[in-house]
Amino acid sequence: MEIPTVLDLPLHPLVLHAPIILVGLLVLGGLAYLLIPPLRQRIGWAVAALVVISPLAVYGTVLTGEQLANFFEPDGWSDVIEQHQNYGWWLLWTLVALVPVWFLFAGLDRGRRTALLRDADAPAPAAGEDGEAASGSSDPAATGRKVVMFIVGLLALVLLGAAAWFLFKAGHSGADMVWGPRMP
Questions:
Q1: Which UniProt keywords apply (predicted)?
Q2: Which structural domain, as residue segments, surrounds residue 76?
Q3: What is the pLDDT of residues 138-158, one digit of tens each?
Q4: Domain for residue 90, yes or no?
Q5: pLDDT for the residue 143
Q6: Does the residue 154 lie in any domain?
Q7: How confident is the model at residue 134, as a pLDDT?
Q8: Which residue of 79, 88, 101, 112 has the fewest C-beta atoms within 10 A of its own C-beta?
Q9: Is residue 128, in this structure, part of any structural domain at all?
Q10: Residue 26: C-alpha distances to residues 21, 46, 117, 184 (Å)
Q11: What's the predicted TM-score (pTM) here?
């Protein structure tokens, strides 16, 4: 059995750096997007691209890792390799789950911003019967949107945290396999 190589190096150790960088940037950018609303318009497209690209990078890394494991242990994987692979798959499924959650939150936020712009362009509300100015948004879904955004945002935060955790565990278990026995 042969494994894919680049310049006689197995592909897995080369491609695994892409998810480390991409998922790390996704977690940091995602936290900034969720927790700092004024940044959303500036970083939204970059984070959305990371939400789509990161699972693809992880999938490529998992596949090349399985090829490498099959090359070195063709009769069955050790428990350490199985655990490392499981962390990779958990990371992948966490990122796949994040995709619809992320785009739902982004769509709700866009609707919120559109309603705010519409209200900003509208003429000032007329005074009520008691002479007080009428207040409130012309957006009938504003309250419901806030509640749903809060719940979806919490779910996105949980998924980002899980992605960071599984990235750490996959990377640490892989590094232990390669470097652990050699370190004093």
A1: Membrane, Transmembrane, Transmembrane helix
A2: 5-120+137-182
A3: 677 778 899 999 999 999 999
A4: yes
A5: 85
A6: yes
A7: 47
A8: 79
A9: no
A10: 9, 9, 28, 34
A11: 0.86
